[in-house]
Design a protein that fits this description.
heterodimer, A: about 160 residues, mainly alpha, about 60% helix, about 0% strand, elongated, B: about 210 residues, alpha+beta, nine-stranded mixed sheet, 5 helices, about 25% strand, globular
Chain lengths: ~160, ~210
């Protein structure tokens, strides 16, 4: 689709917008209940996105297809696809438990990342956001993505080590 | 699919001058990455300020919790849905998802197919309702113009429809000349607007759009 208009046309119409905030859509259909803790919806969103990115990179680093990861973790492939696509849903606790076992990271921390339990501190969330921002959704795991993944795995593992 | 790109111009508010931008007829990975790495942090800053000021959550800016990756994933592979975006300075400035399954309600065109704007949102830094001067103006207009052009390409003669966010009601009515069909009780009380083919011709006269 091509749209050709002169610069003057665009600027005249831009000026007509004034300070109106232009938007459309069924906003309240997305409304979420207020969380019990003080985690804002945006923070929860960020950590869930990081969770999806984490699962995707760990799978790719292991050279697994979604189907093979599903078989290895005894999960449904569709559950993994939903998680990796960052779709707006919270995974089942069993799913997160199985993924934590498969990837050998802290189940408790992965639960927090998936939005199934409240974090007591902001370290995981901050690290998760940093990790997600450094990784791109491309086919091949880049050197930078691999480094970001290694750092994040270390953080997820570190928390349990401290606890022990 | 590779997005087709149209060169457009936005108004950079700080310099009060025009800047070149791209209107793309797809929402791709780059846009979702921008949403995650630019839009969300900007919205988080706004939310932190709202929490600090003690503003109740039900009074927070609307659309601030939209999850664009989910909105794209919901309709992936469905031909009746399309995405559009505006990119300027290599960052996504606005996003729109449209639905080709809807029909018109306005009496002059009731029952005819139209392009329904499912979701339209501009980047947080372009929103005056978040208590700041917008960085760019013209993003919403560009997305709306894209909906009109798509409507013509689909043979819908420029007819479009949408449920407006309250802060945009006046823009759709006065600046775009759309028909205001009033609050839609079946749609959370949002006002429903439609653009007829005549209104589309006034808003965006047909030129060489192929």
């Amino acid at each position: 689709m091509k749209l050709n208009r002169s610069k003057d046309w665009w600027l005249a119409h831009a000026r007509r917008e004034g300070d109106a905030t232009i938007g459309a859509g069924a906003l309240s259909l997305d409304a979420k209940p207020e969380p019990a803790d003080q985690t804002s919806p945006i923070e929860a969103e960020e950590t869930r996105i990081a969770f999806g990115r984490f699962v995707s990179l760990m799978r790719r680093r292991s050279g697994l297809t979604v189907e093979r990861l599903a078989a290895a973790a005894d999960l449904d492939a569709s559950e993994i696809l939903v998680i990796e696509n960052g779709a707006h849903s919270t995974p089942e606790p069993r799913t997160v438990f199985r993924l934590a076992q498969t990837f050998q990271v802290s189940q408790k921390r992965l639960m927090q990342l998936a939005g199934l339990s409240a974090a007591k501190d902001s370290v995981v969330r901050q690290e998760a956001v940093r990790f997600a921002a450094r990784s791109e959704s491309v086919e091949k795991l880049t050197k930078e993505e691999n480094a970001a993944l290694e750092t994040f795995v270390a953080i997820l593992s570190e928390q349990d080590a401290k606890k022990a | 699919m590779t997005a087709e790109i149209s060169t457009i111009h936005l108004l950079e508010v700080a310099s009060n001058s025009g800047v070149e931008a791209e209107l793309r007829d797809a929402i791709e990975d780059a846009q979702l990455t921008d949403w995650r790495t630019h839009w969300l942090p900007a919205l988080r800053t706004v939310h932190e300020q709202l929490i600090k000021r003690g503003v109740p959550r039900n009074q927070w800016p609307q659309s601030s919790h939209w999850d664009w990756p989910a909105k794209v994933a919901q309709v992936e592979g469905l031909l009746a849905f399309k995405g559009f975006c505006v990119v300027c300075a290599r960052v996504t400035q606005g996003l729109m998802r449209i639905d080709l399954n809807q029909i018109a309600r306005e009496s002059r065109q009731a029952g005819k197919p139209l392009v329904y704007v499912d979701y339209l949102e501009v980047a947080p830094w372009n929103r005056a309702d978040l208590g700041q001067a917008p960085r760019y103006r013209g993003v919403g207009t560009a997305l709306l113009a894209a909906a009109v052009v798509l409507s013509r390409e689909e043979g819908f003669k420029g007819r479009i429809g949408l449920h407006s966010l309250p802060q945009a009601d006046r823009f759709y009515r006065d600046s775009c000349g759309m028909s205001d069909l009033g609050p839609d009780v079946a749609y959370h009380g949002l006002r429903y607007f439609e653009m007829t083919s005549e209104q589309a011709d006034a808003f965006l006269p047909e030129e060489d759009e192929k």
